[in-house]
Design a protein that fits this description.
It contains 6 helices and no strands. The chain is mostly helical. The protein has 2 domains: about 1-30, no CATH class; about 45-95, no CATH class. This is YdeI/OmpD-associated family protein. It comes from Thermaerobacter composti.
Length: about 100
């Protein structure tokens, strides 16, 4: 929720209180989101091929933070065509070798 004035907060007070009550109930029930689930994404085959051809790329990949590796994998796997995946990987190799993330 975004508020720009006190009047907006006061107008939505019942809704805000309801959200807080629900959040407390979820916490007390021990429910929650397992953030670890879905973290380990499979490495695309095209990238595995590059690792085999360029051992320095594999070493640089392993040195990246898990978040950076995940961002790259999501970027690579969004491409539907294998050719597009290969092109994305090729364009990303210099950044990976420098230890930079996709958005650095």
């Amino acid at each position: 929720m975004r508020f720009t004035s006190l009047a907006e907060i006061e107008a939505k007070e019942p809704v805000i209180r309801d959200y807080v009550r629900r959040a407390i109930a979820v916490e007390e029930a021990g429910l929650g989101v397992d953030f670890a689930e879905g973290r380990d994404l499979p490495v695309p085959g095209e990238l595995e091929e590059k690792f085999a051809a360029m051992p320095e790329l594999k070493a640089a990949w392993e040195a990246l933070t898990p978040g950076r590796r995940r961002a790259y994998i999501l970027y690579f796997t969004r491409a539907k065509q294998p050719v597009t995946r290969k092109n994305r990987i090729e364009r990303s190799i210099p950044r990976i070798l420098e230890g930079k993330g996709l958005n650095d």
